[in-house]
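User: I'm curious what two different proteins look like when written out as structure tokens. Can you demonstrate?

Assistant: Sure. I'll show them one after the other, since each token string lines up with its own sequence. Here's the first protein:
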Amino acid sequence: MRILVIGGVAGGMSAAARARRLDEHAEIIVFEKGRYVSFANCGLPYHVGGEIEHDSYLLLHSPDSLKAELDLDVRIEHEVIGIDRDAQTVLVSTPDGVQTFEYDALVLSPGADAIVPPIDGMDLPEVTHLRTVDEARNLAARAATARRAVVMGAGFIGLETAEAFRHRGIDVTLVELAPQVLPPLAPEMSALVEKELRAHGVDVRTGVAATGVTAASSDLGDGVSVHLSDGGEVPADIVVVSVGVRPKSGLAREAGLELDPRGAILVDEQQRTSDPHIWAAGDATAVRHGVTGQVGPVPLAGPANRQGRRAADSIMGRVDNAQPVLGTAIVRAFDLTAATTGASPRMLDAAGIEYFVVHTHPANHAGYYPGSQVLHLMGVFSPEGRLLGAQAVGPDGADKRIDVLATALRAGFSADDIAELELAYAPPFGSAKDPVNMLGFLAQNVVNGTTKVWTAAELDWVRDNALLLDVRSEREYAMGHLPEAINLPHTHIREYIEGVKQIAAGRPVRVLCASGVRSYYAHRVLAQHGFDSATLDGGMFTLVDAVPGLELATGAQQAANA
């Protein structure tokens, strides 16, 4: 059997390596257009920032090492330029001219192309992407002398690039067309990351687009000027474009394979394309989302590796059905980690799926153990309590909580299941009630009616129609509160219950605190005394990030007792 693989790195090399492990006698040839067939593309920003000192550390395998270890015939600087499905051949442009190769099975793993905005100046030498080892090597060299950089796009790679430049002491302007950084995150979670970026000197410009890049005018010195849609102009020595990728599916299109509307290659559960002799894996393929059911490309390294392995299994006659993709992803932004899995509220809105959201802000480990820090955790659940997605932002512990919740999501867990998860606990690592359990407890309470929550989206209605009760301490209240809110620390609720009744005068009572814990306690007291009561989801922590520009009053306590 002859297996041809088009493209290396995650999908292609996983397919080739797995095929060899399953069949020692198959002829396996890998064609790679570039010079590197197996490299750590996720590590590129960390080389630019100097954390990965030598670019050689990014090179995982060479043709020689793959030949010695797996007996693979890897041919770099070989570009496949055509596929003849009827003849089962590919046309390859090689250093020695164009050649034709027959195949019994063909694996497409061409990856994705960086999107280039349709604006002037994208061909200037100061403008680049960060997708290849050569680009990382060149950026690392230029970063040694550069003073100013502009990063277009505040997604995962954009944030990593901005951080890398700041580690080099470069002034960075981060430009994002969306109204927030990290668009996959909920706005209130993204706001935490934006604060961290600004705290480390990144000039964040959201809601604006680059309209062009020109050679800098003399008064701005050397380099280029990046022109923005709001009329701004930013000087730069380096411009990195990171506004997204699109499937590199030209070969598949020309060969007549079925594609989705975004140009991704359609495959079945064994990675087989619409041609029974051709499989596909990696960023160029369409996958089904595990929550929304929507089909499209999800360019992530983990799924690409698994898809390549699955394609090889299928070629060898093994059945390994694909699981829908959850889009689990993580990024470091200086001293914060942001992570997500499953569906966000925005995705669920687009898919027309009902849900509710809960936020919690526990300590990342036992509060009495030194070094505990706040972890911001968000869960998205169906009305019946099934987990649909989760997001976490924090200085420590976000990664393992999202991994647990990604596993729970794959298993189809509900709030009840999450509340009962038995997770490892010792004071340096977590709490007896782990943040994951706490998220489950909160969702349980919402589903079974123990807790009635109100959210930032209801703020205007609450201000006009309800008694706002701030149950934080007098000191916290004085430092900043909603002007309409009356302060009554939660420990005095029972003592002043009649006073609350008189001030409410039949209106609903909406309770808030810093994180939602104390307001929950107060809410339960009020509810059991007959009040139409609800607690603010996530407390002031979530509210101030969900409502940009929220004005808070300062000053002394107002008493709720009549």
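Here's a second, unrelated protein for contrast:
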Amino acid sequence: MGEENANREDLHSPYAGRWVARVRGRIVAQGGTPKQALLASRSSRYKEKPEIIFMSVPFNLPPLIDKIKDILPAEQEIYLVGGAVRDLLTSRFSPDLDFAVPSNGIAIARKVANALQADFMILDSERDTGRVIVIEENGSRTYMDFATYRGADLEEDLRDRDFTINAIAYNLHDGTIIDPTDGANDIRRKLIRACSPTSLSDDPVRILRAVRQAAAFGFTIDKPTREWMKQAAGQIRSVSTERLRDEIFKILNGPKVSAAIRALDMLGVLQHLMPELLKLKGVEQSAPHVYDVWTHTLAVLDYLDQILADLRVGYDAEKTSDMFTGLLGLRLGRYREQIADHISSALNKERTHRSLLFFAALYHDICKPDTKTIDENGRIRFFDHDLKGADVVVERALAFNLSNDETERLRGIVQYHMRIHFFADRLEREGQTPSRKAIYRFFRDSHKAGIDLVLLALADVRATRANDLTVDAWSIYLDIARILLENYWEKLEEVIAPPRLLDGNDLIRDLNLTPGPRIGQLLELIRENQAAGKITTKEQALDFARAELPKLNGES
């Protein structure tokens, strides 16, 4: 059996990327591997010996691939596998490159790392897998994992993977593709299909991965795979918390978050991951809400995604025909770069800020079912749902082993998410914008979560009123958002974090006080009044403290 690459005239052939059997110059069969093409040809030309060739496809390979080829000997069998090949076939770039080798995965990884002067680590000693981390001058990272075949050979390794679109291998040396499960065809059909009926039960975290990749690529999941996902849903609890958490946050960081959450619910997975969310279903809300709490929450995710896209650097708001998007860009467009910097500043290197914000959005009304009351006029209210919701999101954050910084950020977003609505309500009813003192208190309590709260509030009001939202009401929220962002980014020392004019020792010495809680209370009152513009000097601060002291002592 002869194996060789086809000439360039075959690049646009309908067989591109496939192995074909050719008899006397005519293609008689094809397959995803040389063996498949040979067996297919024997069914019709069993007496003839076909020529087996690979029909080339053009690839824009990462430069690192050539470097690895140069480092390793020509006889070293090595394949690029998994998502990296899928991304090459869809003209995407992946910062994660997985390689499969017959043996010595860790040793090969160490050799590559040494040659590239890159970082090296043993990723999985049992599976003989080593990782190379290449850090570019701009700080970007490329992760390259070298793993020994999971099975007797490459084909067995590929068939044991999750989905056919991820079960394709690219031979670094001759540019051929091995595709035993017809994954390339599934990529063309935009279909996610399990490699085998047991793919999901073998590793239930693959259920989440299927949903994530369907959303990310705009693919559909084929019917048998969906059924296997439902059957394996109950086994999701056998997966480690960290693996489940990581997949959830990847979903939250991707496109179509609300569709992915709906899919997890329909597949019966959500009840095993975040069962508290299911209580939101069917919980009615009074006007101006147009949806129940569950539908509203999913709509918030959609609007949050849209708002972040509309405020991204480089977006031209003048080209939109949507009035709400146009007004958003007009009022807040000046802060695109600051918002981008804020969203890019992750609290944990393993998870993005964006995914954390979407997690907060998912939980911002989590305690509405528990706090629902109906007054004598039939109006539905949810008193303290924000405060109680903060406790619930902290519980979930701890269950998912999030960092302390992430947990506190989530607490702040959920706990204070009603503040901006109060500001907007007062502006609409009384024509009063937030005072400097109110702005100071808002950021004092929320810290950097204040920026997240602005973005969430805009998505929240759009999801609350949906098509009933008027331009006037939207403008009020944009006014509040602009005031808060303007003070945070343009008047930081003046309003948000005024410099200290004195400290506790000054108060103890000049007012003849003893250490105690009154010192902290006085210092905070002074800073509030600094933010309000009423105190600008140390002398004014001391005079103010003298005047306030009797009130703190309970004197009339």
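A detail about the second structure: The first strand starts at residue 19 and ends at 23.
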